[in-house]
Design goal:
Layout (H helix, E strand, L loop, with lengths): L39 E2 L6 H11 L2 H8 L3 H4 L14 H15 L4 E2 L2 H7 L3 H5 L4 H15 L8 H6 L1 E9 L5 E8 L2 E4 L6 H9 L3 E3 L5 E3 L4 E3 L1 E9 L3 E7 L1 E4 L4 E4 L9 E3 L16 E13 L2 E9 L11 H26 L6 H11 L4 E3 H12 L3 H4 L1 H4 L2 H6 L5 E4 L4 E4 L28 H4 L10 E5 L2 E5 L12 E10 L18 H25 L1 E8 L3 E4 L2 E4 L7 E7 L4 H11 L8 E8 L2 E8 L15 E6 L3 E2 L2 E2 L8 E9 L20 E9 L4 H8 L5 E6 L10 E5 L19 E5 L9 E4 L2 E4 L7 E6 L7 H8 L2 E5 L6 H12 L10 E6 L5 E4 L16 E6 L7 E8 L9 E6 L4 H12 L6 E6 L5 E4 L17 E6 L7 E11 L28 E12 L4 H8 L3 H4 L9 E7 L2 E5 L17 E6 L10 E8 L11 E6 L6 H12 L6 E7 ...
Parallel strand pairs: 1-2, 5-10, 22-28, 31-35, 38-42, 43-47, 48-52, 53-57
Antiparallel strand pairs: 3-4, 3-9, 6-9, 7-8, 10-21, 11-12, 13-14, 14-15, 14-21, 15-19, 16-18, 17-18, 19-20, 22-25, 23-24, 26-27, 26-28, 29-30, 31-32, 33-34, 33-35, 34-37, 36-37, 38-39, 40-41, 40-42, 43-44, 45-46, 45-47, 48-49, 50-51, 50-52, 53-54, 55-56, 55-57
Helix pairs in contact: 4-5, 4-17
Length: 1265
């Protein structure tokens, strides 16, 4: 019912405010109509039933035109609907606007929001499941109430209301008592009938007899008499609506169900047999043709509606599918051959075949129906011999013969009459006077449309499938597919064949549309056209920043502006469809003084400065093809040098900005005077230096200091966090010839430069190739800098930024104490009184990291002493809250991220809602995605009802708001682990694996000598088979080196809760039927033999007890056919056969690994008396055993083992551990969890599906009487 989740919804007919989303998307206009030229309707969440009915009414031209004839003088004006004294008939006005939008506005979809608002509906009605048959009656009632007092007050009555009469005929005096009823639609039965005409035959031709003990009291005879009750149609409406009773109630099971059996309905049919015969109407007045079929897909508790509609006015453009065009000629040739054979068989009737004789007799009858008693006489006239002499000996009586061929003959009127039954769509035409007949008695071409499968009707009209926003062309033969199944016809709409359309209406959607609505549509189309033109221009316009070479110089491995005050960047807006040569010419025109060659090179700002990458050499390609996008940087130069220095381009020469540390010498200051001096008293001076990524380490050392100096790289050690010493590794001589890129050095990495004589100080010590830098005891501090709120004046903000202070701290000090000390020393208590503030770190790129948890110590928070913290405005997250970054639509970058603090118990959907509110975005078509390791938009958060904690969203994670709803189900990404038996045993893996044993580290399972290791992901359609999944698993690198002859040598387990749950069986079963969800985890096991488990087979682990000991022999696999006998008796018999014993000499029990206990399986059956009903044996797969794949079954041989206890020493130790854990929980005042809750849950009979109570549908209508 929810349609396509990734559907791009356009704007409705009424103006709506576009969302403030991603640039280029918030102003995107709705797309124009496609080739079909018909407009769909958006689904508001659960309004597919309304959409199907609205499309049916739209393609009912007479209804549409009658509604358009009502002008504003009768209906009022929508602009006055809020005025209390004005009587505005809102519902018909909104219908007029919606119809004109669907007919004339150049959009692919229209919205019913204004219409449902006029109904008085809220979000509950728009998102809830409702019945289209009920809506049809309620909507027509609302329209009749809305049109009271207008010229259209009888609109619904004239077009849709008919009359039927119920009659009781007294068999004694002939008195007829009748009662007339008005109907809006005919509700016909589906259960027990083959099609529509048989149902109508039972309703209006069959008579109900009052006789025997069920007599009728005649008002004229004044006594109980025999009588016949019947019903007939008296007045036929122009449009006949038929509702099919597909939903019934099973009183035995006390539940509703849907009738999915075959139910045939014709394209055209004649209602004369079902009407009163005294009417002298021509035959054409009884003839109806089908023009709409509303289809329901799903069950009785929910589903989806769409509609097949015949385009009466030929407003759409129909194109036959390619496959249908290819097979049409072949099908026609086959039908011609069949027709020739059929004609030959009809010309000669074999008198020796009674089936041919009886078929020929019935086909020559005018009524196609004969009394069974008269059939024998007609056969004797045909063959010259009675049935008893010619056929009885071989075929039995004539009645028995008719019953033996139900596909040819149909017995009606309690078996007294026989008629030909339509054996299929291509068989002989039945009569309209009997059930199973087609359209009319004269074999009209209309009758054969559904049978021949032609794609076009005789009147040139075509059929379309209108499924919410989607409109597709179909052929008439596609209607046959809706005869039966879960997706089948639910409502049928017929129109009289005498209702012809005027020539000027054909192909003219504006026919009889009021002028004021046409003008409104023209204005809307003009706005749409203008928006599309503006969007096309804006979406192809890019802003390019031009960096001119005369304003730059080369320094520290990158380009830098010569003068920071001078504007060295020119921003131009250009059409990306133009060529590189056009851009070059435009730059020449802007720079009149430019001399010589001009090269345009793509550039990018990196931490070291501006770096050049690819030069645009082909002037003929477009900027789009050249990789120039919105916000791109282009460096304009001569292609060789900048300010006399040769500049190397390309990714391999991208500069790296390194932090260089030297020992501080008080009298020398900072050495060369460059960089940022660190005056924090740490004994080290910091400076920032940039080097080309292709430069060798020896080149770096040559630029920094003397060749004999030691160059060291910082090493992270476990003891380095929270203050204390730090370790540095001296680069070995072989690394000196390697480049910075080869050494994986990146921006912000620190290098320590030491002279050999400086190693004698108390700060530095050398041990092997490691240099230890010890922080002086008087330098245990944290520097806290105040970051003011944004929005202040530049002078105030600069003044506030100067507020910084060193706070003495230790690794054990709480961060809350650090903040209090900083507020005191910075004297910010009064200024920040009542204002929430928090402490944050800053990374190497200048980005503020998430606020620290102030209940942690400096060491526990991972903050190193002698570093900086920043006091920022904002709340402090609690231990149950998460601080998240998020951006809208694009991969996050510094300065473009938003920040939010949410509870970790919030669901994905609730978190998304809060982020949308913070970003001031409207609409529901958004979803969240993660950011992957390369800072790009990654996988979506699929389960919107899962909490952030369950979705493994961590503190400080970055999420991206992406427009578009979550992708539809149908494509699975499965996590695959491989079961590895390290001791060569072929036993089934243990089922009580802990979470640690299933990690990607490949930890061994406890006591099993086996392990499960992560080997990769598999992406596959849910319609693929299990065999396809195994085949795709064989392509994983971990399985390519393993000898697997075929997929049959693999066994696939489903993991649930980090434990092996069940074996996937049925190689041809689809993954959807195997109930595999997106993100599911599976474990693949290599077998020594081929395996193809049946659907009822259970793979158990059987272990025989060691006589006289609390131990078992090694377990073995045992395949048990639970489908043959799934009771305890069946398991005992199977194991007795395996071990060569009798069932009475065995004792079985199931192991419960979570509880370390055993559940005995008894083979005893209760003896019951013959008078009592024997109770059905319970299956071991049901309560209380719930036996499944991989369960451990303990076996005791009572002939040699007198110990009937199954508990082992390991079980006793496990039970003791559980008791100790429960005692610890109770002493802490918390209830025991885990096993106890599972025990309680296991006592329940099973999960029950809670459904919301059904609410009656209603439409609010004003009073116009």
């Amino acid at each position: 019912m929810f349609g396509d989740l990734f559907e791009e919804d356009g704007d409705g007919f009424s103006s709506s405010t576009p969302g403030k989303g991603v640039k280029g998307r918030e102003c995107e206009p709705p797309p124009p109509r496609g080739k079909i030229k018909l407009c769909g309707i958006k689904n508001q969440g659960g309004t597919c039933y309304l959409n199907s009915l609205i499309q049916t009414l739209l393609f009912t031209p007479e209804f549409r035109e009658e509604l358009f004839c009502l002008g504003p003088d009768e209906l009022g004006c929508l602009a006055d609907k809020d005025k209390p004294e004005a009587k505005v008939r809102v519902i018909p006005l909104e219908l007029q606007r919606l119809f004109s939008h669907l007919l004339l506005v150049d959009e692919q979809t229209a919205s019913t929001t204004d219409l449902t608002d006029s109904f008085g509906w809220t979000n509950n009605e728009e998102m809830g499941q409702q019945d289209v048959q009920e809506l049809n009656r309620i909507l027509f009632s609302a329209l009749e109430s809305s049109l009271v007092g207008t010229s259209g007050s009888s609109l619904i009555h004239r077009l849709y209301h008919g009359t039927l009469v119920n009659q009781i005929n007294c068999k004694e005096c002939g008195n007829i008592s009748e009662r007339q009823e008005d109907f809006l639609d005919l509700t016909v039965s589906v259960r027990g009938v083959s099609g529509l005409e048989e149902a109508l035959w039972n309703m209006f031709v069959e008579e109900e007899m009052f006789e025997g003990n069920n007599l009728y009291r005649c008002s004229r005879c004044d006594q109980l008499v025999r009588a016949a009750k019947s019903a007939k149609l008296r007045k036929l409406p122009p449009f006949l609506t038929i509702s099919l009773l597909r939903f019934n109630f099973d009183f035995a099971k006390c539940e509703r169900y849907k009738e999915t059996g075959s139910y045939v309905f014709p394209l055209t049919f004649n209602l004369r047999p079902f009407c009163e015969q005294q009417n002298n109407w021509p035959d054409s007045e009884y003839s109806y043709e089908l023009f709409s079929v509303i289809i329901h897909k799903g069950g009785c508790y929910g589903g989806h509606y769409h509609v097949y509609i015949k385009d009466i006015d030929q407003l759409g453009h129909w194109e036959a599918p390619e496959e249908e065009v290819k097979v049409k000629a072949k099908t026609q040739r086959q039908e011609d051959k069949v027709g020739e054979r059929k004609k030959e068989s009809e010309r000669s009737v074999d008198t020796e075949d009674p089936l041919s004789v009886l078929t020929d007799i019935l086909s020559q009858e005018e009524s196609k129906c004969v009394l069974v008693d008269q059939l024998g006489q007609k056969l004797m006239n045909k063959t010259g011999m009675p049935w008893s002499k010619k056929y009885k000996k071989q075929y039995g009586t004539i009645s028995k013969f008719l019953q033996n061929y139900p596909e040819v003959f149909m017995l009606v009127s309690n078996g007294t009459r026989v008629a030909l039954k339509a054996a299929g769509p291509a068989t002989t035409e039945p009569s309209p006077t009997e059930p199973g007949s087609s359209a009319s008695a004269n074999n009209s071409p209309d009758n054969t449309e559904l049978q021949t499968g032609d794609t076009e009707g005789p009147d040139g009209c075509h059929w379309f499938d209108l499924n919410d926003s989607t409109v597709t062309a179909i052929s008439e033969k596609d209607i046959e597919k809706q005869f039966q199944g879960k997706e089948s016809a639910y409502m049928l709409f017929y129109r009289k064949t005498t209702m012809k359309r005027p020539p000027e209406a054909i192909g003219n959607p504006a026919y009889k549309v009021p002028r004021h609505l046409v003008e409104m549509v023209q204005e809307e189309n003009a706005r749409l056209q203008q928006r599309r033109a503006e969007f096309d221009a804006s979406s192809n316009s890019v802003e390019v920043r031009l960096h001119l070479a005369p304003h730059y110089h080369y320094q520290n491995g990158a380009l830098h502006p010569i003068s920071p005050d001078e504007d060295s960047v020119i921003t131009v807006t250009f059409d990306r469809r133009k060529t590189v040569g056009d851009l070059r010419l435009a730059i020449y025109q802007m720079q009149d003084l430019w001399e010589g060659d001009m090269a345009l090179t793509l550039a990018k700002n990196v931490p070291a400065g501006l770096h050049l990458y690819d030069t645009l050499t082909d002037d003929q390609i477009s900027l789009y093809s050249a990789g120039v996008s919105n916000g791109s940087d282009l460096f304009v130069w001569n292609g060789r040098e900048v300010s006399g220095v040769a500049v190397k381009t390309g990714i391999e020469w991208e500069p790296v900005l390194l932090t260089v540390l030297r020992p501080s010498v008080e009298e020398l200051g900072c050495g060369d005077g460059s960089g940022v001096e660190d005056t924090d008293g740490s004994g080290l001076v910091r400076s920032m230096k940039g080097f080309a990524g292709g430069a060798t380490l020896s080149t770096v050392l040559e630029a920094l200091g003397p060749q004999e100096a030691l160059l060291c790289q910082e090493q992270s050690r476990p003891g380095a966090t929270g203050g204390g010493a730090s370790g540095w590794r001296v680069f070995p001589p072989q690394d000196m010839q390697r480049t910075l890129r080869e050494l994986s050095l990146k921006d912000g990495d620190a290098l320590l430069l030491l002279q050999p004589e400086e190693l004698d100080s108390s700060i530095f010590s050398l041990s092997g190739d490691m240099v230890t830098v010890t922080t002086p005891s008087d330098c245990r501090w944290l520097q806290v800098e105040f970051c003011p709120q944004s929005g202040l004046k530049e002078e105030e903000e600069e003044e506030q930024r100067k507020k910084r202070s060193k706070v003495s701290a230790s690794g054990n000090m709480l961060l809350a104490e650090v903040k209090e000390k900083a507020l005191e020393e910075l004297r910010l208590q009064d200024e920040l009184s009542g204002v929430e503030c928090c402490l944050r770190q800053m990374d190497r790129t200048g980005k503020h990291l998430p606020p620290v948890h102030e209940h942690l110590s400096v060491r526990d928070a991972g903050i190193r002493l002698m570093t900086s913290l920043y006091l920022c405005p904002g709340p402090v997250p609690t231990s149950t809250q998460l601080f998240l970054y998020f951006s809208v639509g694009l991969a996050p970058s510094v300065g473009q991220e938003l920040e939010i603090i949410v509870e970790e118990s919030l669901t994905i959907k609730e978190c998304l809602k809060e982020m949308l509110q913070m970003a001031k975005l409207d609409g529901e078509s958004w979803h969240l995605r993660r950011v992957d390791w390369c800072e790009e938009i990654g996988e979506p958060l699929m389960d919107e009802n899962a909490s952030l904690k369950e979705a493994r969203v961590s503190h400080g994670d970055t999420l991206v708001l992406v427009e578009g709803r979550l992708p539809p189900k149908g494509y699975l990404k499965l996590s695959v682990k491989m079961y590895i038996d390290t001791i060569g045993s072929s036993s089934v893996p243990e089922l009580n694996h802990t979470a640690e044993s299933l990690s990607t580290e490949g930890l061994a399972t406890e006591g099993s000598g086996s392990e499960m290791r992560f080997i990769g992901h598999v992406e596959i359609s849910e319609e693929a088979s299990l065999d396809d999944l195994k085949t795709q698993m064989m392509t994983l690198p971990a399985l390519q080196d393993v000898c697997v002859p075929s997929p049959a040598f693999l066994r696939v387990w489903l993991l649930e809760g980090k434990k092996l749950s069940r074996i996937l069986r049925g190689n041809q079963q689809t993954l959807r039927k195997l109930k595999l969800g997106n993100g599911a985890e599976v474990c693949v096991q290599r077998l020594m033999n081929e395996e193809n488990l049946g659907l009822k087979d259970l793979l158990l682990r059987v272990q025989m007890g060691v006589p006289g000991e609390k131990a078992y022999y090694p377990s073995e696999e045992f395949l048990w056919d639970a489908g043959r006998d799934g009771t305890p008796r069946g398991l005992y018999a199977a194991l007795a056969s395996r071990y060569g014993l009798t069932p009475d000499n065995l004792l079985l029990a199931k192991h419960l690994p979570d509880k370390h206990t055993w559940m005995p399986i008894s083979n005893w059956t209760q003896q019951v008396s013959k008078r009592k009903k024997k109770r059905k044996a319970e299956s071991l797969q049901a309560a209380p055993f719930y036996l499944k794949d991989g369960d451990i079954i303990g076996v005791k041989n009572l002939l040699i083992d007198n110990n009937k206890e199954f508990t082992t020493l390991e079980d006793e130790i496990g039970q003791q551990s559980l008791r100790e854990e429960a005692a610890n929980h109770n002493t802490r005042g918390r209830p025991a969890t885990g096993d106890y809750s599972k025990d309680i849950g296991s006592k329940k009979s099973g999960p029950t599906k809670n459904r919301r109570p059904e609410v009656a549908l209603s439409i609010n209508v004003g009073v116009f009487r």
